[in-house]
Amino acid sequence: MDPSSTHQPLPTSVPDEKYANVKWEDLAFGFVRTDNMYVAKCNYGEDFQEGKIVPFADLQLNPCAAVLQYGQGLYEGLKAYRTEDGRILLFRPDQNAHRIQAGAKRFYMPYPSVDQFVSAIKQVALANKKWIPPPGKGTLYIRPILFGSGPILGSFPVPETTFSAFACPVGRYHKDNTGLNLKVEDKFRRAFLSGTGGVKSITNYSPVWMPMVEAKKQGFSDILFLDAATGKNVEELFAANVFMLKGNVVSTPALTGTILPGITRICVMELCRDFGYQVEERVIPLEEFLESDETFCTGTASIVTSIASVTFKDKKTGFKTGKETLAAKLYDTLSDIQTGRVEDTKGWTVEIDRQG
Questions:
Q1: Residue 200 bears catalytic tag
Q2: C-alpha span between 297 and 86 (Å, rounded)
Q3: Of 23, 200, 217, 346, which one is the catalytic site residue?
């Protein structure tokens, strides 16, 4: 079910004080400058204190800042949803807080508490409320970032760490609802054992832009990466976890330190169990993945998206797509919870505002 199909486009010729002046029906997944952002700073040896909402602006950084010199930085991604009855909902922001804390420990950085993190996300959403799209027209994507902002050259400690968050209204990450066409990347690897693949490091993404661009030029939607140790097992997409369905068994690659522990991933696993499927986390050889009945990917941006085909060394394998797939059922169920169309019996959503 496509939520946008039940809503008429918001008129853009007549300003509405409730909304920013955006053509919501044309909304893509990309940067849109909004009004405000959140900033908090922490000196070495201290704890993060409450930050503040400030007008959106460029950040000033010392050229020797740890994030610029050594890549000491993490980010998160989550969304605020506007419901039909005017509420604003977040989806499991505490899980993003726990994940950024895990990354901060790996990067030897101070980090905000769970309460501080969730409070910051709520503040950003409310401070940019008019940028939250109408129901069915998109979401407000919130990007928290934690990075070494103090100058450092060759030795510890980093004198200052910054925690900030901004927001952009976004449409669907994958515009093609018919399913993704993936290319198996058999040369470049996304992550290595004992590396940073299991945390949301800013350094995980640009190293694989080159093969991603090449795949796009060849007409593919995304890349399916293999493990670095053997080059035989599937891991994840550029920015999404992956699942396969065979019979009544749903499988996803096990978290061994090279795969990001996606929040949508754990929700989908729970929903699959609710639907009566057996769920496994394990090593999945590519040859077995290609024999699946159905495959799909999950993520904050992707939500749940079917994979229509996977191409490996010029051999293309197709998979089931459409409204009768498990992916479609998962997408509808998850989207209904996130947008408040059904009762949230799992306690996954956080309401932050009852005012229209």
A1: yes
A2: 30
A3: 200
